[in-house]
C-alpha cells in the first residue's frame, strides 16, 4: 500500500541510514551522474513551447501536500449536454532528448522510487520538480486532453493537442476536499463528474482496491505508522486519470500501435478463496455479486475492513504491459480491475511508460507519424516496467519492515491484539490492531480469526511473535 515520503528529523539518522542501506542493496540512486545533470540544465534553459495556446484555461493541480512533481492539471466546465473536462499532462518529450543521457538513465530506472525519507526520482529534479512540472503561475508545454461528457459521464468526444498551459493553483488533497465541502464551483464539478464516472465503473464491473495510505511519522524520539483513508476528492480525481487512460487505450487500439496496461480477470480459485476469507471475517461476499461492487460497499470503518482489503490483493494480481501488434484478442488487452482496456498515460514525470504512450496518442489523434524514438522505444519497455515495479515493491516492503522493527523494539514482551488476514501453510499473515502493521507468525486459525500475540524479540530477520 502507498506511503508518503517525508523528511527525517536529525535525531532519526539511524533509521535514515537503514533506508540508505536498503536503497544501496537494491541499486536505487537518489542522485544522478554529472553528465545527466548537465544535460538536464541544458534542456531546461529554454524549453520549447507549442504554438497552440491554452493559457486562458484556469487549470489547477491536486496532489499530496508539498508535492513538486506535478504531472496533471485539470479544469472542468458545464457543457450543453453535460461536461467538458480539460486534462493537461506534463510534456516530457519537450525536455528529454531521445537517446540522450537523461533518456538512457530513465530507461534504467523505470519509475520514481519512494522511501519514507525521500524519493529517488525518475528524472533529475531540475526537470521533474521544475521545468516540466505543472507548477502554478508558469507557462509550460503540456499534452491537453479535452473530453466531452454527457450528463451521465459517458465520453462522447475526445481531442488531444500539445499546448501552452498555465496552472493557477497547486491544491493539496485536504484543500481540494475543503473546497468541495464548501461549494467551490470547480471542485463541485469534479464531484459530479467523479461520482458519475464511479457509477459507470460499477456498470462495467470495474473495481478499485483503494488501500489506505500509510504515513510513517516521527513522534518525538519514537515512530509510528498511521493509516489514512482516501478522501472522496482523491477518488474523484483518480477517475479523471482513469478516463484518460481508457481514452489512450482506445486510440492505440484503433491504430494497433502502442502499449497497454493489462490485468487478467481473477481466476475462479482466487475468487473462491477470497469468498471464504471474508466470510470468516464476518463480511460475506455473495456468489452473484461483482467483486468491484463488494469492495465499493465495504464499510471502511469496520474493524475487519483493512483485513478484507489485504485479502482482496489476490484478485488484483497479474498486472503487466502489452505492446500492441494489431492482432490482439479482448482477453489480451483487458484491465480487469477497470473493466476496460487501459494505458498508463497521466504520470510521465514519475513513470517511464507514460512518455511513450503520450507520444503515440498525440500522433494517432492528430494523424501524424509516430515519432521513431517512441515506436522503437517500446522494445523492452514491458520488461523495464516490470523490473522497476518489483524493485519499488521491495523498497516499500523493506522500509516498512525497518520502521516496524523500530516501532516495536521498545515493546518486547508486550501482548498485542491481531487479526489473521491470510495464511501460507503453517505461517499466517496478521494485522496488528495497534500499531497498524502487518506481521507473520506461526499461529493456527483461518483468516478473520482474532488472536493475541506476545512480542518475543526483535532480530535481524524482523519481529518474532508467539501466541500469548
Automatic annotation (TrEMBL):
Segments traversing the membrane: none
Gene Ontology CC terms, in alphabetical order: P-body
Annotated protein name in UniProt: RNB domain-containing ribonuclease
Molecular function via GO: 3'-5'-RNA exonuclease activity; RNA binding
A Gene Ontology BP annotation from the UniProt entry: mRNA catabolic process
InterPro entries with a match to the protein in the record: NA-bd_OB-fold, RNase_II/R, RNase_II_C_S1, RNR_Ribonuclease
Organism expressing this protein natively: Microbacterium mitrae
Matches recorded under Pfam families: RNase_II_C_S1, RNB
SMART domains found in the cross-reference section: RNB
Ranges of residues in domain RNB: 51-367
PANTHER family: RIBONUCLEASE (PTHR23355), RIBONUCLEASE II, CHLOROPLASTIC_MITOCHONDRIAL (PTHR23355:SF42)
Coiled coil location: none
Highest taxon above the source species: Bacteria
